[in-house]
Amino acid sequence: MTNVWLVSDGFKEVLLGAFCPQTPLNVSRREAAIVGEENSKPTLRSQMRNPYFWAGMVVGITWIAVFVWLSIDLGWPDNYGFHCHGKGCLFVEIWHSPTLLKHNRLKEFALFMCVWTLPALVLGVWAWVGWKKLKNKHLNFSLFDDNPPPP
Q1: pLDDT band with cut points at 50, 70 and 90 for residue 120
Q2: Residues near 82 by beta carbon (within 8 Å), at least 6 away in sequence
Q3: Which of 22, 24, 28, 97 has CA atoms 20 to 30 A from the CA of 51?
Q4: Alpha-carbon gap, residue 111 to 76, rounded angstroms
């Protein structure tokens, strides 16, 4: 049992948490998690119930399967003039990936897209996070203002 506080707000009752001056009401941990208790931490079980988790798993496994299938089918990278066996092959494959575009076949273009999906995703997330940080940063200064902005 978890201690939470019950506050009546007109037509609805809201579970608040430890900062409410009312008396505690004993409710089960499941009920507190449904309402969204402040101190509850996400567990692996609750994260696995999220549909975005499963969508990410399906997309990731599908990407790996398509990449492996196309690599085996086309003989990448051995049939294209270079060999890489070991750590760091992703960078070597990215460097040599323009050779896939020389023959203008659909499978080679699909493998080229699979090779460049991971770097594009990383750069896209990096740019998105940077844009969000820049957008949320308030630049409160002026060249003509005598008072400097607060730290």
Answers
A1: very high
A2: 92, 96
A3: 28
A4: 9
Start-to-end C-alpha separation, the chain: 44
Strand order in the sheet with 12-15: 12-15, 2-9, 24-27
* Integer angstrom CA distances of residue 111 from 36, 46, 62, 97, 131: 44, 36, 13, 9, 30
Residue-wise pLDDT tens digits, 16-46:
444 444 444 555 555 555 555 455 677 777 7
Residue among 119, 59, 69 nearest 93 (CA): 119
Which residue carries 């990215």 as its tokens?
A: 94
Quick one: pLDDT at residue 130?
85
DSSP string, 81-136: T----STTHHHHHHHHGGGGGSS--HHHHHHHHHHHHHHHHHHHHHHHHHHHHHHH
Q: In whole angstroms, what is the distance from residue 142 CA to residue 151 CA?
A: 15
Q: Give the distance from CA 62 to its chain's centroid.
A: 17
